[in-house]
Amino acid sequence: MLQFSFDRYLLPSSATRQGFAIADNTNHVLPPEGFQTIYDPVARTISIAGPPGGPDAWLTPGLDYKLVFFVPPNNDSDMTGFRAIDRAPLDAAQNLTFVFKAGAARGVAGDPKMDFCADVLPIFVRKCDGPLCHGSGDRTAASLVLTSRNGVDITAIRRVAQGSNTGGAAFTPKPSREFGVDMAIIEPGNPGASWLMYKIEMAPHPVIDASTPLVERVLCTPPPGALTIPPAAAAYAPLAPIIPQATDSERARLEDYILGRYMPYPAASVDLVTQPLTFQERERVRLWIAAGAETRECGGCGTIIIGDGGAR
Question: Residue 275: pLDDT above 70?
Fold first, then answer.
Protein backbone atom coordinates (compact mmCIF):
# COMPACT_ATOMS: atom_id res chain seq x y z
CA MET A 1 0.00 0.00 0.00
CA LEU A 2 1.08 3.56 -0.75
CA GLN A 3 -0.06 6.38 1.54
CA PHE A 4 0.35 10.15 1.20
CA SER A 5 -0.65 12.83 3.68
CA PHE A 6 -2.04 16.28 2.84
CA ASP A 7 -2.11 19.49 4.83
CA ARG A 8 -5.69 20.28 3.76
CA TYR A 9 -9.05 18.52 3.78
CA LEU A 10 -9.75 17.05 0.36
CA LEU A 11 -12.86 17.32 -1.78
CA PRO A 12 -14.14 13.74 -1.38
CA SER A 13 -15.41 13.52 -4.95
CA SER A 14 -11.88 14.23 -6.22
CA ALA A 15 -10.29 11.41 -4.21
CA THR A 16 -10.42 8.91 -7.07
CA ARG A 17 -7.97 6.92 -9.16
CA GLN A 18 -8.20 9.64 -11.84
CA GLY A 19 -5.94 11.79 -9.66
CA PHE A 20 -2.76 9.82 -10.25
CA ALA A 21 -0.96 7.30 -12.44
CA ILE A 22 1.55 4.56 -11.65
CA ALA A 23 4.10 3.42 -14.25
CA ASP A 24 6.57 0.53 -14.08
CA ASN A 25 10.30 0.70 -14.88
CA THR A 26 9.56 0.57 -18.63
CA ASN A 27 7.21 3.58 -18.33
CA HIS A 28 4.22 1.33 -18.96
CA VAL A 29 1.25 2.86 -17.14
CA LEU A 30 -0.53 0.32 -14.97
CA PRO A 31 -4.29 0.00 -15.59
CA PRO A 32 -6.07 2.01 -12.89
CA GLU A 33 -9.15 -0.22 -12.78
CA GLY A 34 -7.60 -2.44 -10.13
CA PHE A 35 -6.53 0.37 -7.80
CA GLN A 36 -8.27 1.22 -4.56
CA THR A 37 -8.15 4.89 -3.55
CA ILE A 38 -9.05 5.37 0.12
CA TYR A 39 -9.52 8.84 1.64
CA ASP A 40 -9.14 9.37 5.38
CA PRO A 41 -10.56 12.80 6.35
CA VAL A 42 -9.18 12.53 9.90
CA ALA A 43 -5.51 11.95 9.04
CA ARG A 44 -6.02 13.67 5.65
CA THR A 45 -4.35 10.83 3.78
CA ILE A 46 -4.87 9.08 0.48
CA SER A 47 -4.05 5.36 0.48
CA ILE A 48 -3.51 3.53 -2.80
CA ALA A 49 -3.82 -0.24 -2.82
CA GLY A 50 -4.30 -3.04 -5.31
CA PRO A 51 -7.45 -5.07 -5.97
CA PRO A 52 -9.29 -6.04 -2.77
CA GLY A 53 -8.71 -9.62 -1.73
CA GLY A 54 -6.23 -10.29 -4.51
CA PRO A 55 -4.04 -13.36 -3.83
CA ASP A 56 -0.95 -11.89 -5.49
CA ALA A 57 1.11 -8.76 -4.94
CA TRP A 58 -0.19 -5.93 -7.13
CA LEU A 59 3.35 -4.62 -7.64
CA THR A 60 6.33 -6.81 -8.51
CA PRO A 61 8.76 -6.92 -5.56
CA GLY A 62 12.14 -5.41 -6.35
CA LEU A 63 11.01 -3.35 -9.34
CA ASP A 64 11.07 0.44 -9.50
CA TYR A 65 7.80 2.30 -10.04
CA LYS A 66 6.84 5.92 -10.60
CA LEU A 67 3.81 7.60 -9.09
CA VAL A 68 2.62 10.85 -10.68
CA PHE A 69 -0.06 13.15 -9.28
CA PHE A 70 -2.08 15.13 -11.83
CA VAL A 71 -2.74 18.87 -11.76
CA PRO A 72 -5.75 19.97 -13.85
CA PRO A 73 -4.85 22.12 -16.88
CA ASN A 74 -7.97 24.23 -16.39
CA ASN A 75 -8.82 25.02 -12.80
CA ASP A 76 -12.41 26.05 -13.56
CA SER A 77 -13.68 23.15 -15.64
CA ASP A 78 -11.29 20.18 -15.30
CA MET A 79 -11.84 18.19 -12.11
CA THR A 80 -8.94 15.77 -12.69
CA GLY A 81 -6.66 15.44 -9.69
CA PHE A 82 -6.98 15.78 -5.94
CA ARG A 83 -8.53 19.03 -4.75
CA ALA A 84 -9.09 20.70 -1.40
CA ILE A 85 -12.64 21.32 -0.15
CA ASP A 86 -12.63 24.77 -1.80
CA ARG A 87 -11.60 23.13 -5.12
CA ALA A 88 -8.00 24.34 -4.89
CA PRO A 89 -5.77 21.91 -6.87
CA LEU A 90 -2.35 20.64 -5.88
CA ASP A 91 0.41 23.22 -6.13
CA ALA A 92 2.13 22.55 -9.46
CA ALA A 93 5.40 23.97 -8.09
CA GLN A 94 5.88 21.13 -5.61
CA ASN A 95 7.21 17.66 -6.34
CA LEU A 96 4.40 15.63 -7.91
CA THR A 97 6.46 12.62 -9.08
CA PHE A 98 7.71 9.94 -6.71
CA VAL A 99 9.93 6.97 -7.59
CA PHE A 100 9.83 3.96 -5.27
CA LYS A 101 10.82 0.31 -5.16
CA ALA A 102 8.19 -2.29 -4.38
CA GLY A 103 9.00 -4.37 -1.34
CA ALA A 104 8.32 -8.03 -0.75
CA ALA A 105 4.71 -9.02 -0.19
CA ARG A 106 3.99 -9.11 3.55
CA GLY A 107 0.33 -10.00 3.55
CA VAL A 108 -2.46 -7.57 4.32
CA ALA A 109 -2.90 -6.72 7.99
CA GLY A 110 -5.64 -4.20 7.21
CA ASP A 111 -7.06 -1.49 9.43
CA PRO A 112 -8.24 -2.37 12.95
CA LYS A 113 -11.82 -3.65 12.82
CA MET A 114 -14.18 -1.54 14.89
CA ASP A 115 -17.09 -3.02 16.82
CA PHE A 116 -20.06 -0.68 17.29
CA CYS A 117 -20.59 -1.71 20.92
CA ALA A 118 -16.93 -1.80 21.94
CA ASP A 119 -15.44 1.08 19.99
CA VAL A 120 -18.06 3.54 18.74
CA LEU A 121 -21.18 3.69 20.92
CA PRO A 122 -19.05 4.25 24.07
CA ILE A 123 -17.64 7.40 22.43
CA PHE A 124 -21.12 8.65 21.55
CA VAL A 125 -22.46 7.87 25.03
CA ARG A 126 -19.57 9.60 26.78
CA LYS A 127 -19.19 12.65 24.53
CA CYS A 128 -22.66 13.25 23.03
CA ASP A 129 -25.15 12.53 25.84
CA GLY A 130 -25.57 16.00 27.31
CA PRO A 131 -29.06 17.23 28.28
CA LEU A 132 -29.30 19.39 25.14
CA CYS A 133 -27.06 17.28 22.93
CA HIS A 134 -27.69 13.98 21.14
CA GLY A 135 -29.02 11.68 23.83
CA SER A 136 -32.51 10.22 23.89
CA GLY A 137 -34.17 13.05 25.83
CA ASP A 138 -37.05 15.22 24.63
CA ARG A 139 -34.77 18.13 23.65
CA THR A 140 -32.35 16.33 21.35
CA ALA A 141 -30.34 18.75 19.21
CA ALA A 142 -31.17 18.66 15.48
CA SER A 143 -33.34 15.56 16.09
CA LEU A 144 -30.12 13.51 16.09
CA VAL A 145 -29.77 10.66 18.60
CA LEU A 146 -26.35 9.02 18.82
CA THR A 147 -26.53 7.18 22.14
CA SER A 148 -28.48 4.10 21.05
CA ARG A 149 -28.56 1.70 18.13
CA ASN A 150 -32.06 2.77 17.10
CA GLY A 151 -31.11 6.42 17.35
CA VAL A 152 -28.11 5.99 15.06
CA ASP A 153 -30.06 3.83 12.59
CA ILE A 154 -33.06 6.14 12.35
CA THR A 155 -31.63 9.64 12.76
CA ALA A 156 -28.07 9.40 11.39
CA ILE A 157 -27.50 6.60 8.87
CA ARG A 158 -28.03 8.02 5.35
CA ARG A 159 -30.04 10.93 6.78
CA VAL A 160 -29.21 14.29 5.22
CA ALA A 161 -27.89 16.64 7.89
CA GLN A 162 -30.03 19.71 8.57
CA GLY A 163 -27.02 21.97 8.14
CA SER A 164 -26.11 20.40 4.78
CA ASN A 165 -29.59 20.71 3.28
CA THR A 166 -28.56 23.65 1.10
CA GLY A 167 -28.99 22.16 -2.37
CA GLY A 168 -31.24 23.51 -5.11
CA ALA A 169 -34.99 23.71 -4.85
CA ALA A 170 -37.22 21.04 -6.36
CA PHE A 171 -36.56 20.46 -10.06
CA THR A 172 -33.47 22.69 -9.87
CA PRO A 173 -30.08 21.03 -10.55
CA LYS A 174 -27.85 20.75 -7.53
CA PRO A 175 -24.40 22.38 -7.54
CA SER A 176 -21.87 20.05 -9.18
CA ARG A 177 -19.33 18.43 -6.85
CA GLU A 178 -19.92 21.03 -4.15
CA PHE A 179 -18.49 20.08 -0.78
CA GLY A 180 -21.02 19.61 2.02
CA VAL A 181 -24.23 20.07 0.02
CA ASP A 182 -26.94 17.57 1.06
CA MET A 183 -24.33 15.45 2.86
CA ALA A 184 -25.59 12.57 4.99
CA ILE A 185 -24.78 12.59 8.69
CA ILE A 186 -23.35 9.09 8.27
CA GLU A 187 -22.81 7.66 4.79
CA PRO A 188 -21.88 3.98 5.28
CA GLY A 189 -18.64 3.12 3.50
CA ASN A 190 -17.74 6.77 2.90
CA PRO A 191 -16.46 8.76 5.90
CA GLY A 192 -15.31 11.53 3.53
CA ALA A 193 -18.97 12.14 2.65
CA SER A 194 -20.25 11.94 6.25
CA TRP A 195 -21.24 15.24 7.92
CA LEU A 196 -20.52 13.80 11.38
CA MET A 197 -16.81 13.43 10.59
CA TYR A 198 -16.44 17.11 9.81
CA LYS A 199 -18.45 18.28 12.82
CA ILE A 200 -15.96 16.52 15.10
CA GLU A 201 -13.02 17.65 12.93
CA MET A 202 -13.98 21.30 13.40
CA ALA A 203 -13.31 21.14 17.12
CA PRO A 204 -10.13 22.70 18.54
CA HIS A 205 -7.35 20.58 19.98
CA PRO A 206 -8.41 18.49 22.99
CA VAL A 207 -7.42 19.92 26.36
CA ILE A 208 -5.49 17.27 28.27
CA ASP A 209 -5.67 17.76 32.03
CA ALA A 210 -2.65 15.92 33.40
CA SER A 211 -3.83 16.52 36.97
CA THR A 212 -6.96 14.40 36.55
CA PRO A 213 -6.48 11.54 39.02
CA LEU A 214 -8.88 9.02 37.48
CA VAL A 215 -9.85 8.03 33.97
CA GLU A 216 -13.41 7.20 32.97
CA ARG A 217 -14.53 4.83 30.24
CA VAL A 218 -17.89 3.69 28.99
CA LEU A 219 -18.48 -0.05 28.71
CA CYS A 220 -21.59 -1.73 27.35
CA THR A 221 -23.17 -4.99 28.57
CA PRO A 222 -25.00 -7.00 25.90
CA PRO A 223 -28.58 -8.08 26.54
CA PRO A 224 -29.32 -11.77 27.12
CA GLY A 225 -28.83 -13.83 23.98
CA ALA A 226 -26.91 -11.13 22.14
CA LEU A 227 -23.38 -11.48 20.83
CA THR A 228 -20.63 -10.83 23.32
CA ILE A 229 -18.79 -7.54 23.08
CA PRO A 230 -15.09 -7.91 22.21
CA PRO A 231 -12.29 -5.87 23.76
CA ALA A 232 -11.70 -2.44 22.24
CA ALA A 233 -9.76 -2.52 18.97
CA ALA A 234 -6.08 -1.73 18.70
CA ALA A 235 -4.98 1.85 18.05
CA TYR A 236 -4.84 3.04 14.45
CA ALA A 237 -1.37 3.78 13.09
CA PRO A 238 -1.10 5.64 9.74
CA LEU A 239 1.71 4.68 7.39
CA ALA A 240 2.56 8.24 6.33
CA PRO A 241 3.82 10.91 8.74
CA ILE A 242 0.84 13.11 9.62
CA ILE A 243 -0.26 15.97 11.84
CA PRO A 244 -3.14 14.46 13.87
CA GLN A 245 -4.99 17.78 14.06
CA ALA A 246 -5.61 20.18 11.18
CA THR A 247 -4.31 23.73 11.52
CA ASP A 248 -6.55 26.48 12.87
CA SER A 249 -6.69 28.10 9.44
CA GLU A 250 -7.79 24.84 7.79
CA ARG A 251 -10.48 24.28 10.39
CA ALA A 252 -11.65 27.86 9.74
CA ARG A 253 -12.02 26.98 6.05
CA LEU A 254 -14.02 23.91 7.03
CA GLU A 255 -16.44 26.14 8.95
CA ASP A 256 -17.32 27.88 5.67
CA TYR A 257 -18.90 24.64 4.45
CA ILE A 258 -19.97 22.75 7.58
CA LEU A 259 -22.54 24.96 9.27
CA GLY A 260 -23.17 25.17 13.00
CA ARG A 261 -21.05 24.45 16.04
CA TYR A 262 -18.28 21.92 16.24
CA MET A 263 -18.96 18.75 18.22
CA PRO A 264 -18.92 17.96 21.02
CA TYR A 265 -19.57 21.56 22.04
CA PRO A 266 -18.14 22.13 25.52
CA ALA A 267 -20.13 22.94 28.62
CA ALA A 268 -19.45 26.11 30.60
CA SER A 269 -16.33 24.51 32.05
CA VAL A 270 -14.34 22.26 29.76
CA ASP A 271 -13.94 18.81 31.29
CA LEU A 272 -12.90 15.38 30.08
CA VAL A 273 -16.39 14.57 28.89
CA THR A 274 -17.12 17.64 26.80
CA GLN A 275 -13.69 18.17 25.33
CA PRO A 276 -13.16 17.30 21.64
CA LEU A 277 -12.47 13.77 20.47
CA THR A 278 -8.87 12.65 20.38
CA PHE A 279 -7.21 11.52 17.16
CA GLN A 280 -7.77 7.86 18.08
CA GLU A 281 -11.44 8.46 18.91
CA ARG A 282 -12.00 10.22 15.58
CA GLU A 283 -10.23 7.40 13.76
CA ARG A 284 -12.45 4.83 15.47
CA VAL A 285 -15.54 6.60 14.17
CA ARG A 286 -13.94 6.94 10.71
CA LEU A 287 -12.94 3.28 10.49
CA TRP A 288 -16.41 2.18 11.61
CA ILE A 289 -18.07 4.28 8.89
CA ALA A 290 -15.55 3.13 6.27
CA ALA A 291 -16.37 -0.51 7.05
CA GLY A 292 -20.11 0.06 6.52
CA ALA A 293 -21.29 1.68 9.80
CA GLU A 294 -22.92 -1.52 11.04
CA THR A 295 -24.86 -1.27 14.29
CA ARG A 296 -26.17 -3.84 16.75
CA GLU A 297 -27.90 -3.94 20.10
CA CYS A 298 -25.37 -3.15 22.83
CA GLY A 299 -27.52 -3.42 25.94
CA GLY A 300 -26.78 -1.08 28.82
CA CYS A 301 -23.77 1.23 28.71
CA GLY A 302 -22.27 2.78 31.81
CA THR A 303 -19.26 4.76 32.96
CA ILE A 304 -16.53 3.04 34.95
CA ILE A 305 -13.26 4.20 36.49
CA ILE A 306 -10.33 2.34 34.97
CA GLY A 307 -7.36 3.75 36.84
CA ASP A 308 -5.32 6.84 37.53
CA GLY A 309 -3.27 9.02 35.23
CA GLY A 310 -3.89 11.69 32.64
CA ALA A 311 -6.61 11.67 30.03
CA ARG A 312 -6.09 9.20 27.23
Answer: yes
